[in-house]
Amino acid sequence: MSTRTLGALTAFAGARWGRRPHDRPGLVARQQAALARFLAHVLPRAPFYRDRPRTLAELPVVDKATTLARFAEFNTVGVTLDCALEVALAAERSRNFAPTLPGGITVGLSSGTSGTRGVFLVSDTERARWAGVLLARLLTAGSLRRIIGWGAPLRIAFFLRANSNLYATLGSRRIAFDFHDLLEPLAAHMARLNTSRPDVLAAPPTVLRLLAEAASNGTLLIAPRQVVSVAEVLEPDDAAVITAAWGVPVQQVYQATEGFLGATCTHGRIHLNEDVLHVEPEWIADGTATPTRFHPIVTDFTRATQIVARYRLDDVLRAADGDCPCGSPTRSLAAVEGRADDILWRPGADGRPQAIFPDVVRRAMALVTGLRDYRLEQHGGEWRVRMQPLDHAIAVSVRRELAAMTARLGAVPPLVQVLPWTDTPLTEKRRRIRCLVR
């Protein structure tokens, strides 16, 4: 058994069956002990933190711009940004994602939905740990029985814009991991799926919906036992179509350049992986006494190659109410709503800018009968809606629902311009709601 396989199995067993705190105080106590070790022994190995304080609260909050500008100072292996980009971009051009840096360091790129692509480094050990924890969080009991049984291996079909050594780590004698490159035509993917008949189907929700529609009309002949949404916000209308096609709930993975951040439990809530992460909520004022939305400030106390310490994400997360019925003491989310630039803005009654969160907009658009798909962009005082189908009665309904929504919020209704639909390439992340000019 290889060192990597042993590491993945150890991480899997610990995340799946290991002793874990049953209440919040116990979880916090374990976090604090792990953080203390990280701050004392790992953090000083990165030049950026060498002369910094050793308490979390005294560390600066950093973001993507800072970590890219000083990339070599945030990793402990002396890799420059130019060196990392050279390897990562060569892999994307050739579609060969196997090459690594000396020492088995994997380089990855984010998709750059916020305008700038993130770059991440992980060691062979970290890859194995990531694979083990991910499988422990996601696999159902039925899928696990397939892995430890004597029959055919568990077949996983994974759709992404770029492969990575991270995902290749999932493959083994008992797991047949099949990467589907979104640069290839969808018809070719469906032919492969009809041949491989995967047990687990993981893809961005845009792709999952297209595949679900193909399954509903009889073109795609698969019956996955698990369906996993990755890389994009899973919208309620997409989840309903996907669930109806295969009769299984859609699980969600919340992952970013900064690591594997969370996944859904059996009750459908997204739980943050607080056994390996410390998350500080930066609450977003929304006019209520107790805000529910926040930007996460993340510290990963298990990564030692590229330091993630008090890293602020632009993601907008909505906290769930109360304790989760699953019993986990980790912080749970009602939704990952999008990024900061997915928040729209309108003048309020007092003339001050008022935030309109993506989830509120989605609910309004869900009331429009006959609307199959849409993209909404704010350009200053104008909201441009590309819609499918382009129908006069539906356009009237879109304007009415958006006006009613903003009025309920005490904001000035926007000028809505309706435009013809244009397809977004599968290689680009879908951004249904976006503020381009505030």
Write the layout of secondary structure elements.
Blueprint: H1 3-17, H2 24-42, H3 64-69, H4 81-94, E1 106-109, E2 119-122, H5 124-138, H6 141-148, E3 154-160, H7 165-168, E4 175-181, H8 186-196, E5 200-203, H9 205-216, E6 226-229, H10 236-246, E7 250-256, E8 259-264, E9 270-272, E10 277-283, E11 293-300, E12 311-312, E13 315-319, E14 332-339, E15 344-347, E16 353-356, H11 358-366, E17 373-379, E18 382-388, H12 392-408, E19 415-420, E20 433-437
Parallel strand pairs: 3-4, 3-5, 5-6, 6-7, 17-20, 18-19
Antiparallel strand pairs: 1-2, 7-8, 8-9, 9-14, 10-11, 11-12, 11-13, 13-14, 15-16, 17-18
Helix pairs in contact: 1-5, 9-10, 11-12
Short note summarizing the structure:
This protein has twelve helices and 20 strands.
Can you walk through the features of this model?
The strands form four sheets. Strands 3, 4, 5, 6, 7, 8, 9, 10, 11, 12, 13 and 14 form a twelve-stranded mixed sheet that branches. A four-stranded mixed sheet has the order 19-18-17-20, with helices on one face. The chain folds into two domains: 340 residues, ANL, N-terminal domain (Rossmann fold, 3-Layer(aba) Sandwich); 95 residues, Alpha-Beta Plaits, CATH 3.30.70. The chain contains twelve helices and 20 strands. The model has no long low-confidence stretch (mean pLDDT 86). It is an alpha/beta fold and 438 residues long. Helix 1 runs parallel beside helix 5 and helix 9 packs parallel to helix 10.
